[in-house]
Amino acid sequence: MAPTRAKLADGRDLLFFALPGHRPAPVTDRRPLPARDPDQSWLRYDQTTGQWVIVAARRQDRTYKPPPDQCPLCPGPTGLTSEVPAPDYDVVVFENQFPSLSGDGPAAPVPGDGFVSAPGHGRCEVVCFSSAHTGSFAGLEPAHARLVVEAWRHRTADLIHAPGIEQVFCFENRGEEIGVTLTHPHGQIYGYPYLTPRTAVMLARAREHRMRHGGNLFADLLAREVADGGRIVARTELFTAFVPFAARWPVEVHIYPNRFARNLLELGEEELDGFTRIYLDVLQRFDRMYEAPLPYISALHQYADTEAQADGYFHVELMSIRRSADKLKYLAASESAMDAFISDVTPEDVARRLRGLG
């Protein structure tokens, strides 16, 4: 079903996604919000790396660890207290009040010499997984988790070919150790005006692989992981979850569809159901690793059906900085300054442990 649409007091979009039999009932947002500034962020080009840097100074004012009774993601039936003015909701998506990217405009320009900058046009959205303040994605009922996937899919469809958007990125940061400042279970969606550095590198590698070998890099890697078997965490008829051969993070799992697809839009209904099941399975294994919930980042790698992104293969990369029950992996000099990752555990040992938690 199509989402129920509403507007927040400053004109931002708000979309309610409902389970069968539920009818969203948004109320008027009556908060005295300041007018939005379409020029609140900028892109600056780093000539030494060939990468864009987003400068979004207004994010310094974003909500920081509010008490539970002041959470802006909980339902706000009065229309005076919340980003979600409604008595309840299942899944909701809205434009971020403190976006890294905002406003309609062209994609990032082709950079020249010297100091190059451009408006930080793009889209940043928040996805609330549930109206419940406590809990996590892993604790959602399957039908509810599938609704979140449908919200991701809907927003991907709206943004992937939008003018000025080069990449759609759905993601979740979970846990204060990761840097989360709002504990209400939620994720985000970014519509970037350029290809992110990691995506650009992976696509270049995939293009080179196709020219040399004639196949798809990601499909060939998946086939090798399945043939090896030692790093497989879970495998179904439709999806495979595995710890990659060259994992960077103490806990890292990738989830691939067993057939080629560039994005959520290219998966059928049965595949979307299967994706939801294996995604929940992996997250629930994460939560069983230690007494405390595992902090993690979930990154959905999606690609447009364009010639430039033709070699992209939809997959999810899940990663955690927790390297033991009471130790975190800090990205210090080698990782942060040199982008040279050093792993403290073997991928095979991590995969073995996660398999045992099924």
Automatic annotation (TrEMBL):
Organism superkingdom: Bacteria
Pathway the protein takes part in: Carbohydrate metabolism; galactose metabolism
Top class in the EC scheme: transferase
Keywords from the UniProt entry: Carbohydrate metabolism, Galactose metabolism, Metal-binding, Nucleotidyltransferase, Transferase, Zinc
Reaction(s) catalysed (UniProt annotation): alpha-D-galactose 1-phosphate + UDP-alpha-D-glucose = alpha-D-glucose 1-phosphate + UDP-alpha-D-galactose
EC number: 2.7.7.12
GO molecular function: UDP-glucose:hexose-1-phosphate uridylyltransferase activity
Domain Galactose-1-phosphate uridyl transferase C-terminal: 208-318
Signal peptide span: none
Cofactor(s) it depends on: Zn(2+)
Residue ranges annotated for the Galactose-1-phosphate uridyl transferase N-terminal domain, each copy included: 41-195
InterPro entries, alphabetized: GalP_UDPtransf1, GalP_UDPtransf1_His-AS, GalP_Utransf_C, GalP_Utransf_N, HIT-like_sf
CDD domains (UniProt xref): GalT (cd00608)
NCBIfam families for this protein: galT_1 (TIGR00209)
Family designation: Belongs to the galactose-1-phosphate uridylyltransferase type 1 family.
PANTHER family: GALACTOSE-1-PHOSPHATE URIDYLYLTRANSFERASE
Record-given protein name: Galactose-1-phosphate uridylyltransferase
Organism: Mycobacterium servetii
